[in-house]
Amino acid sequence: MPSRTVTVASRVGLHARPAAVFTRAAAAASVQVTLAVAGKDPVNAASVLGVMTLGVECGQEVTLAAEGEGADGALDSLAALLATDLDA
C-alpha cells in the first residue's frame, strides 16, 4: 500500500480551517485515503471530525496511505497540501 509521511506545516496544525481544506481535498480524491499519527489508529482522511480528533499540531509528522489506481497521485497531492501553511 503506497504511503507518504509528511510534516504538517499549518501554524495551528490540523484544526478547523486547515482540517476542512485538507478533508475536502481528500474527499475529492479518486481513492480512499487514511491519515495516521504515531500511537493512534488511522482515520478516514475525508472526515473532518476524524482528522480533528487526531489532534495534529504544527511540525508533527503524519502518514497518508491509500490503495488502488491513482493512489500515488492522490497521496502526492495531499502530502503537498499538508506541507503548506493552510492558514495563510
Mind explaining what this structure looks like?
The termini are far apart. The chain has a four-stranded antiparallel sheet, covered by helices on one side. The chain is an alpha+beta fold and 88 residues long. The protein contains three helices and four strands.
Write the SSE topology.
Layout (H helix, E strand, L loop, with lengths): L2 E5 L8 H13 L4 E4 L6 E2 L3 H6 L7 E6 L4 H12 L6
Antiparallel strand pairs: 1-4, 2-3, 2-4
The number of distinct β-strands equals 4
Question: What structural category do the secondary elements indicate?
Answer: alpha+beta
Q: Count the DSSP helices.
A: 3
What is the end-to-end distance? 32 Å
The strand order across the widest sheet is: 1-4-2-3
Percent in helix: 25-40%
Q: H/E series, N to C?
A: EHEEHEH
Main sheet: strands, sense, barrel: 4 strands, antiparallel
Strand content: 15-25%
Give the overall form. globular
**Rg, nearest Å:** 11 Å
Question: Could you write a compact summary of the structure shown?
Answer:
With 88 residues, this protein is of the alpha+beta class. 35% of the residues lie in helices and 19% in strands. Strands 1-4-2-3 form a four-stranded antiparallel beta sheet, with helices on one face.
